Amino acid sequence: MKDKTFYPKKSLGQNFLQDPNVIRKIVDAVQPRPDDTIVEIGPGRGAITSHLAGKCRELILIEFDQDLAETLQKEYETDRHVRIIRDDILKTDWKEFLPANKVVGNLPYNISSQILFALYSHAPDVGEAVFMVQKEFARRLVAEPSTKDYGIMTILTRLYGKAEILFHIPPTVFFPRPKVDSTLVRIRLDSGNNQDIDDKAYFHQLVRTAFNQRRKTLRNSLKKITEDRFIPSVDLSLRAEALTFEDFKRLYHILKGDSP
Ligand code: SAM
Prior knowledge:
Elements: E1 16-17, H1 20-30, E2 37-41, H2 49-52, E3 58-63, H3 66-75, E4 82-86, E5 100-106, H4 112-121, E6 126-134, H5 135-141, H6 152-160, E7 161-169, E8 174-175, E9 182-189, H7 200-212, H8 218-221, H9 223-226, H10 245-256
Parallel strand pairs: 2-3, 2-5, 3-4, 5-6
Antiparallel strand pairs: 1-8, 6-9, 7-9
S-adenosylmethionine binds at residues 12-17, 41-45, 47-48, 62-65, 68, 88-90, 106, 108, 111.
């Protein structure tokens, strides 16, 4: 995209990719195909966008910054395969642009969790996500039990799919440079792990409640949910971080009264 005088907005997490090699590696990870519908969150100045346009059936760009959205609109006004939505990704109705094979983006890091929760609530309509996120956040998606990174994000990611770390990226490839390292992750959305979880909201509440007081034992943190009932086959003297994803599922089924 042609440059014009533009001051990056910190409040919108604007750190623009500058390095052509890193951009190429990201596009290689996305692997745009001629029959893909691809959604890009926060296209910004189009660093990734320009390598996706023309390589897929439909490209939908969601950009909150009005100036950037306007520039993108001009750039792609003659391309009928590109659609631009000027809106906040957290407020827009995802049904406007789903289903899509791929949702991609160098995300505004301050709202990465909220974007992932929104993605997961539309999981059946998305094939996979390729996101650039803060390195520490990426670690939470793939963490093992009993580590400090293991938590709500880990369990919910397992519930809706499978995350994989692709590669790490230093601050030097952005303008302005962020204070943190970044990581490209792929999340394949897959209903295999959640077909037996009918009440997803209840599962979310269970996991949130357990981890919100992660220093307490489950017997204490889940008191309001378990109401001191006897819970067979899950050790409530443990802390939430010691429970595997399968343990959480077992706990859910017991609390729901599902037959084994
Ligand atoms: N994709 C560009 C790149 O890699 O150079 C820009 C990435 S920058 C880290 C994040 C982008 O998300 C910015 O363009 C910013 O304006 C946009 N953004 C921030 N908050 C947003 C929101 N709530 N909804 C949609 N876009 C948002």
